[in-house]
Automatic annotation (TrEMBL):
Binding site for substrate: 251
Source organism per UniProt: Sporosarcina siberiensis
EC number: 1.1.1.86
Role of this protein: Involved in the biosynthesis of branched-chain amino acids (BCAA). Catalyzes an alkyl-migration followed by a ketol-acid reduction of (S)-2-acetolactate (S2AL) to yield (R)-2,3-dihydroxy-isovalerate. In the isomerase reaction, S2AL is rearranged via a Mg-dependent methyl migration to produce 3-hydroxy-3-methyl-2-ketobutyrate (HMKB). In the reductase reaction, this 2-ketoacid undergoes a metal-dependent reduction by NADPH to yield (R)-2,3-dihydroxy-isovalerate.
Protein name (database record): Ketol-acid reductoisomerase (NADP(+))
Length: 330
C-alpha cells in the first residue's frame, strides 16, 4: 500500500514562517489562496489586472502583480494555465526567484516536458489536488478536502518534503489523504486520467448516449436527465462506496445490465486506444501538439469549443438547470 499522509502526520509550522505567493487566481488559484489564508498562512496573490485581480480583491486577498508577489514570497506556487507558464515564468517569476526559495506547481507538465528549467539553488516540488479547483474550495469550506499528490523534484533546503506536506495540509488535502509521487508519474497519469476517463472518455460517452436516444426519437430532455444529470448521482454513490456501493443502490435489473453491457461498450479495442493515448503522453507527442496548438493561436481548440457549446445536450441542459435553483451553475 502506498504511504499516505494525513493531518496528524504533518507539522505545518515549517510553512507558517514563510510567505506564500499564489500566482494565478483561477480554478486552482482561488482555492489554494483562500484555503491557505483560512488555514492561517501568509498569502499574497500574484495576478495581472483584470477579472482575477478584481475577484481576489473582492475575496479580501492581498494582491500584487506576478512580479511583485514572486519577489516578496518564499514559496511561489504557479497556478497559471500550463500553456502560458513558460513565458510568464521567464519574464515575471524568475527575476524574483532568489536562492533558497521554493518553486511549486500543481501539475508537473512544464517541468517534466522541459519547458521550465528551474535554477539549481531553489527547492522544486508539486502539490497536485486530484480534483477541480472549485471543489478544492467547496469541500474545504464544508470541512472536508480533496486528496492530493506531492512530489519533490529538487531539495536544496533539505526540507522540501515537509514544506510540500504543510502546503497540502493548508489547502485541506491532508483531510482526505496525500500521496507521494514523482513529476513524471503525476504528469503522465493526470493527462491520461483527464483524456481517457474523467473528461474525454466521459463527455464522449455521455454525448453518444444522448445522441443515440434523441436519434431514436426519444425526448431530448429525457435523454439529458438519463445520460448527464443522473450520472452525477450515480458517480456520487461510487465516490461514497466504490463500484459495489453504487451497485447496492441500483436495481438488480440495472446491476445485471451493468454486468452484461459494460464490456460491450468499453471493450478490448477501447483499452487498446487508451494504451495509445498513454504512449502518446509518455513520448511527449501530446505535449508537443498542445504547445504547437497554442503557438498557432488555438485554431482547433476554439473551433471545437464553439461546436461543443452549440451541441443540443448543452442547450437542452441549460434550460433544465435553470429550473433547478439548487444546482450550482457555472
Ligand atoms: N483546473 C483544475 O482544477 C486543476 C488544475 N491543475 C493545474 O493548476 C494550474 C492552473 O490551472 P487552472 O487553475 O485550471 O487555471 P485557470 O485557467 O483556471 O486560471 C488561470 C489564472 O491565471 C491567470 N493568468 C492567465 N494569464 C496570465 C498572465 N499573462 N499574467 C497573469 N495572470 C495570468 C488568470 O487570470 P485572468 O483572469 O487575468 O485571465 C487566472 O487567474 C495548471 O498547472 C493546471 O494543470 C491541477 C489540478 C486541477
Ligand atoms: C480532470 C482535469 C484536471 O486534471 C483536474 C481537475 O484534475 C485538470 O487538469 O483540470
Ligand atoms: Mg487532474
Ligand atoms: Mg490535469
Amino acid at each position: 500500500m502506498a504511504k499516505m499522509y494525513y493531518n496528524n502526520d504533518i507539522n505545518e509550522g515549517v510553512l507558517k514562517e514563510k510567505k506564500i505567493a499564489v500566482i494565478g487566481y483561477g480554478s486552482q488559484g482561488h482555492a489554494h489562496a483562500r484555503n491557505l489564508k483560512d488555514s492561517g498562512f501568509d498569502v499574497v496573490v500574484g495576478v495581472r489586472e483584470g477579472k482575477s485581480f478584481d475577484q481576489a480583491k473582492e475575496d479580501g486577498m492581498t494582491v500584487a502583480s506576478v512580479k511583485e508577489a514572486s519577489e516578496q514570497a518564499d514559496v511561489i506556487m504557479i497556478l497559471l494555465p500550463d500553456e502560458r507558464q513558460k513565458k510568464i515564468y521567464n519574464e515575471e517569476i524568475l527575476p524574483g526567484l532568489a536562492a533558497g526559495k521554493s518553486l511549486v506547481f500543481a501539475h508537473g507538465f512544464n517541468v517534466h516536458f522541459d519547458e521550465i528549467k528551474p535554477p539549481a539553488d531553489v527547492d522544486v516540488f508539486l502539490v497536485a489536488p486530484k480534483g477541480p479547483g472549485h471543489l478544492v474550495r467547496r469541500t474545504f469550506e464544508a470541512g472536508a478536502g480533496v486528496p492530493a499528490l506531492f512530489a519533490v523534484y529538487q531539495d536544496v533546503s533539505g526540507n522540501a518534503q515537509d514544506v510540500a506536506l504543510a502546503y497540502a495540509k493548508g489547502i485541506g488535502s491532508a483531510r482526505a489523504g496525500v500521496l507521494e509521487t514523482s513529476f513524471k508519474e503525476e504528469t503522465e497519469t493526470d493527462l491520461f486520467g483527464e483524456q481517457a476517463v474523467l473528461c474525454g472518455g466521459t463527455t464522449a460517452l455521455v454525448k453518444a448516449g444522448f445522441e443515440i436516444l434523441v436519434e431514436a426519437g426519444y425526448q431530448p430532455e429525457l435523454a439529458y436527465f438519463e445520460t448527464l444529470h443522473e450520472l452525477k448521482l450515480i458517480v456520487d454513490l461510487m465516490y461514497e462506496g466504490g463500484l459495489s456501493g453504487m451497485r447496492y443502490s441500483i436495481s438488480d435489473t440495472a446491476q445485471w445490465g451493468d454486468y452484461v453491457a459494460g464490456d460491450r461498450i468499453i471493450d478490448a479495442g477501447t483499452k487498446d486506444r487508451m494504451r495509445e493515448l498513454l504512449s502518446e503522453i509518455q513520448s511527449g507527442e501530446f505535449a508537443r501538439g498542445w504547445i504547437q496548438e497554442n503557438e498557432d493561436n488555438r485554431p482547433q481548440f476554439d473551433a471545437i469549443t464553439e461546436k461543443e457549446e452549440a451541441h443540443q445536450i448543452e442547450t437542452v441542459g441549460k434550460k433544465l438547470r435553470d429550473m433547478m435553483p439548487f444546482v450550482n451553475q457555472r
